[in-house]
């Protein structure tokens, strides 16, 4: 594994942060901080702040801390002490420069992966505390430019990639026609009322990875699934507003998603291989709207594939030969408990599965999640160098014979791609859907 050369830290320039900071006054900062703490938090924040004994046991959980040679500034407790604790302690009376640093820490040095919560003797959810910081940053107008642009796309188009209204059904028709060259009677059903399943994806699929829709359509067709996709807004299940602290936009997105499923009278929503979208639909957007659980059964692709294979609706013609290693995405493993179902799928599809260590709920984050990759080029190297420990973990699996890295999550895919290439690890990266499409029995 190649080691990158060490560079001195330089001041990061981000127009979203820097222009926002230039407009702040200390009076506004104090007002917004106290408004969020007094009106939008409660016993949970108070209990966490007053319970933490600063023991530092969370440190060993954090890939940023481990990757920066145990620098305490990168420990979870260190990041909280540099942000929300200081805001609470000083009752909001902090400087614009403090807010600038808090924005960088909250948006680029924490993936909200919740690994640290497993190490805390009190179970303090530091991801929640950092999310409160992001909410304050959002209300102060100091969110990093690239992820704020994505939130704007959500607001205007109800998807994160500025996909226009006619572009979405056009892409589905295009992929249907492509798939019909292989399976002539295949259809991608649009606006079908009463189907068992509404299949939803994230906007990068029609924008950049339309072949994943093709593959999903083939899987649905061969398995005999009664499914549909919406032809208008509500098809995108992604949600970067959740990570900017823009809870109002997050609520609009989730309401639209659920209302689309209700309009189509489907029984459940099946989501593609995305972790943050699953978190948004299953665990955060629904709560902002007042539901303890979503109003529809939400099924992640891992669970969907597991059920199709176990029920014999998909048959494997010949197992995938190259040895694979499996990445456990934070939001569907720590957040959704799908680690064993993921392994069932992996072993059903592949001849050889090599575990990376640690794994399952103790796996290291890809360092792209939590919206960090969406902060864009100014912070790219910060997340890559901040996850050297993941590179070491992947290299360990490579030395045991792994040739392919399966990552059933879009952000993980992108983040791991950067790590694999930067550290010259030499693993091919695939989704489960890629492998299922390749090894499943199809009509002659």
Description:
The protein is globular. With 444 residues, the chain is mainly α. It is built from 22 helices and 8 strands. It has helices at 15-22, 26-40, 43-51, 63-67, 76-81, 84-89, 96-108, 126-140, 145-157, 167-180, 204-208, 211-223, 241-244, 247-263, 275-288, 301-310, 330-333, 339-349, 380-385, 388-399, 410-422, 432-439; strands at residues 197-200, 227-228, 268-271, 297-300, 324-326, 353-354, 404-406, 428-430. Helix content is 50%, strand content 6%.
Low-confidence stretches: 1-8
Rg computed from alpha carbons, rounded to a whole number of angstroms: 22 Å
- Largest sheet composition: 4 strands, parallel
Widest β-sheet, arrangement of strands: 2-1-3-4
Short description:
By secondary structure, the protein is mainly alpha-helical.
Which helices and strands occur, and which strands form pairs?
Elements: H1 15-22, H2 26-40, H3 43-51, H4 63-67, H5 76-81, H6 84-89, H7 96-108, H8 126-140, H9 145-157, H10 167-180, E1 197-200, H11 204-208, H12 211-223, E2 227-228, H13 241-244, H14 247-263, E3 268-271, H15 275-288, E4 297-300, H16 301-310, E5 324-326, H17 330-333, H18 339-349, E6 353-354, H19 380-385, H20 388-399, E7 404-406, H21 410-422, E8 428-430, H22 432-439
Parallel strand pairs: 1-2, 1-3, 3-4, 5-6, 5-7, 7-8
Helix pairs in contact: 1-7, 2-8, 7-8, 10-12, 12-22, 14-15, 16-18
């Amino acid at each position: 594994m190649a080691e990158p050369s060490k560079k001195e830290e330089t001041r990061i320039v981000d127009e979203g942060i820097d222009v926002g900071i230039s407009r702040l006054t200390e009076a506004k900062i104090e007002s917004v901080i106290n408004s969020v703490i007094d009106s939008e938090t409660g016993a949970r924040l108070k209990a966490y702040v007053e319970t933490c004994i600063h023991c530092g046991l969370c440190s060993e959980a954090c890939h940023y801390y481990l990757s920066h040679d145990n620098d305490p500034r990168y420990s979870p407790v260190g990041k909280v002490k540099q942000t929300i604790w200081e805001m609470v302690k000083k009752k909001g009376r902090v400087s614009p420069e403090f807010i600038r640093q808090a924005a960088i820490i909250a948006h680029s040095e924490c993936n909200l992966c919740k690994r640290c919560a497993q190490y805390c003797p009190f179970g303090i959810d530091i991801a929640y505390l950092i999310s409160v910081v992001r909410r304050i940053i959002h209300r102060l107008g100091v969110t990093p430019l690239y992820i704020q642009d994505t939130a704007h796309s959500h607001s205007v188009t109800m998807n994160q990639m500025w996909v226009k209204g006619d572009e979405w059904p056009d892409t589905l028709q295009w992929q249907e026609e492509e798939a019909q060259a292989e399976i002539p009677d295949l259809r991608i059903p649009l606006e079908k009322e009463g189907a068992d399943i509404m299949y939803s994806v994230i906007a990068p699929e029609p924008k950049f990875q339309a072949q994943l829709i093709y593959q999903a359509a083939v899987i649905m067709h061969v398995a005999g699934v009664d499914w549909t996709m919406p032809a208008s807004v509500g098809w995108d299940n992604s949600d970067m507003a959740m990570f900017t602290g823009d809870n109002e936009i997050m609520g609009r997105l989730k309401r639209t998603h659920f209302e689309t499923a209700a309009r189509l009278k489907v029984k459940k929503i099946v989501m593609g291989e995305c972790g943050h979208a699953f978190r948004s639909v299953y665990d955060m957007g629904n709560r902002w709207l007042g539901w303890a659980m979503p109003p529809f059964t939400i099924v992640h692709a891992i669970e969907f594939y597991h059920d199709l294979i176990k029920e014999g609706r998909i048959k494997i013609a010949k197992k995938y030969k190259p040895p694979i290693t499996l990445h456990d995405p934070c939001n569907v493993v720590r957040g959704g408990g799908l680690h064993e179902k993921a392994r069932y799928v992996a072993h059903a599809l592949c001849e050889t599965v090599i575990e990376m260590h640690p794994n399952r709920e103790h796996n290291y984050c890809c360092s792209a999640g939590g919206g960090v990759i969406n902060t864009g080029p100014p912070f790219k190297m910060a997340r890559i160098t901040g996850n050297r420990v993941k590179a070491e973990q992947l290299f360990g699996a490579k030395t045991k014979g792994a040739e392919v890295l399966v990552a059933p999550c879009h952000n993980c895919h992108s983040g791991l791609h950067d790590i694999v290439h930067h550290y010259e690890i030499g693993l091919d990266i695939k989704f489960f859907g890629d492998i299922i499409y390749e090894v499943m029995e199809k009509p002659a």
